[in-house]
Amino acid sequence: MPNRGLPALGLLLIGLAGCGSGGDELAGLPDTPTVRGGLFDDLKAADTWAYQIQALENASRRQALEASGYDLFVLEPTRTVKGSQSFNTARMVSRLKNAGGRRRLVLAYVDIGQAERYRTYWKSWWKAPTKSGPGTPDFLLAADPDGWSDCFTVAYWDARWQAITATGTDSLLDLLLDDGFDGIYLDWVEAYGEPQVKARANSDGVDPKTEMVRFISRIRLTAQQRNPDFLVIAQNASPLLAARPVYATVIDGIAQEDLHFRGESDVDWWDPRSGDIRTPNSERTALEQRLDGYLAAGLPVLTVDYCVKESNRLSSYTLSRDRGYIPFVSRTPLDRLPKAPPP
Questions:
Q1: Weakest mean pLDDT among 15-24, 43-52, 182-191
Q2: For residue range 228-286, what is the model confidence (pLDDT) as tens digits?
Q3: Which residues form the domain of 213?
């Protein structure tokens, strides 16, 4: 798919972000974002958020979202999943934006650091990578290290992958803009640290951290051609701000998983392994120190913990709020809202 041209300022930003391996290759970028639209104020004012990326075809689960009191939703677009192309995502988004007679924010979940075999973009001739080498196309590098099935880390600086996700005709970004989402929630930003990614980046003569920042900048600028208020939230990868400070100018917030509790992958909602695995204190402390850097940069910090026990759920909410974060607690399938609202 052909690349869509970026506005002149976008080309300047991308051009300045060179491909060296040092820490200052993004020097020269502005200290403030290209656009901070009115929705950014709404994002900063949010007290609650919810996260569901499975089972949105289920009408009762969509109705539960509409009846809830959350200020912000992060949702799977659904019609980009094979077999669900007829799902009316635009209707879901429109209903949620105005549910309960007040404006809610609705963001689309998109995995930019991995390809997913169940997506409509996955062609019949594509082959998954193996332990011995990349797949076909060769931007498919490795299986998900956390055990999520049918997910494969990619060389995200590859123009073919960027066309699929953001810059090409009928990209994932185009579809979610068509559907009226207020922004995008980026998963697998931390792909820059994966061994196969670092090896390919070294072979291609690029720096993986820099290329991730450039990619997110391109996503932001491309989306803002159609919606100047478009929001960008990145999940995890908290060390990226210290490594590339300009990162604060291309996102509107960060979301951190597993700050207090995590769960296992590929389990169902009622499986006791879907939460309650405590994050070690040393790891949590390091995460908090990095996340506080985002707060200092004026960016909201969202957290999502995975808990089964009520005591862990309540503790996660309290601890995150005490640090100025916006918490949500669920279970790893993320296929419904928890029965209990935030305390």
A1: 15-24
A2: 999 999 999 999 999 999 999 999 999 999 999 999 999 999 999 999 999 999 999 99
A3: 8-17+24-330
Distance separating alpha carbons of residues 172 and 333, to the nearest angstrom:
22
Indicate the angle between helix axes 59-67 and 89-97, nearest 10 degrees.
20
> How many angstroms separate the CA atoms of 86 and 84, rounded?
5
Q: What is the CATH classification number for the domain harbouring 289?
A: 3.20.20.70
Taking only the tens place, the pLDDT of each residue in 295-335 is 999 999 999 999 999 999 999 999 999 999 999 999 999 99
| Distance of alpha carbon 48 from alpha carbon 166, whole angstroms | 28
Residue 128 structure tokens: 């998954």
For the chain, what's the residue count? 343
What three-state secondary structure class fits 73? strand
- Structurally, the chain folds into a number of domains equal to 1
Q: Which residue has the tokens 């932001």?
A: 220
| Helix, strand, coil % over all residues of the chain, rounded to 5 | 35, 20, 45
Using CA atoms, how far apart are residues 13 and 18, in angstroms rounded to an integer? Answer: 10
> Is 339 within a domain?
no
- How far apart (Å, rounded) are the C-alpha atoms in residues 41 and 293? 19
pTM score: 0.91
**Residue at 336 is within a domain:** no
Residue at 287 is within a domain: yes
Crossing angle between the packed helical segments 208-224 and 8-16, to the nearest 10 degrees: 170
Closest of 67, 32, 34 to residue 50, by C-alpha: 67
Q: Which amino acid is at 343?
A: P
Please indicate, yes or no, if residue 337 is contained in any of the structural domains. Answer: no
